[in-house]
Design goal:
Low-confidence stretches: 1-38
Largest sheet: 5 strands, mixed
Shape: globular
Number of helices: 3
Oligomer: single chain
Helix content: 10-25%
Distance between the termini: 26 Å
Order of helices and strands: EEEEHEEEHHE
CATH architecture: Roll
Radius of gyration: 17 Å
Strand order of the largest sheet: 4-6-7-8-5
Number of domains: 1
CATH superfamily: Sulfate adenylyltransferase
CATH topology: Sulfate adenylyltransferase
Structural class: alpha+beta
Mean pLDDT: 82
CATH class: Alpha Beta
Strand content: 25-35%
């Protein structure tokens, strides 16, 4: 049948989503699959998936280099496996850098935890350490597609 390309949030130069519709029936589900082209990816732990989908987790802290641009759309995934589909599309709302130890109670809640202490324990479990002076990227996001 053909292809249709959509641009999300054109005012910000948003990512492109291409919808491919085929004449060949899908042998597994009969549904049309979305193909996400050009979108970046953010990996999350399985424990965060439902919190993100429910709008409870709206922030993440990341180490390393800056890989996020305000207004961009990113695929939220649980792994890098070929063919794995995103569980959501996230729009980046803000990006800032701060010391890991400067997290506030409100930020801990936006990370999906009830307190700074609970967040700290989760960070240590995920990364294997807690270093308050470590500079991290704080990425605020919203779900634009589930």
């Amino acid at each position: 049948m053909g292809e249709k390309t959509f641009r999300l949030d054109e005012s910000d130069g948003g990512s492109i989503i291409k919808l491919v519709i085929s004449d060949i029936p899908h042998r597994h589900s009969g549904k049309i699959d979305l193909i996400f082209e050009g979108d970046e990816m953010i990996l999350f732990k399985p424990e965060h998936k439902e919190l993100i989908l429910q709008g409870i987790k709206t922030q993440t802290r990341r180490t390393g280099k800056k890989r996020w641009k305000v207004g961009s759309i990113h695929q939220a995934k649980l792994n890098f496996k070929k063919g794995s589909k995103p569980f959501a599309l996230l729009k980046i709302i803000s990006v800032r850098q701060e010391r890991l130890g400067d997290i506030s109670e409100d930020d801990a809640k936006a990370e999906g935890y009830s307190s700074i202490q609970e967040y700290k324990e989760a960070f240590k479990r995920i990364y294997g350490f807690w270093e308050p002076d470590l500079m991290v990227w704080v990425v605020d996001f919203e779900v634009v597609q589930r």
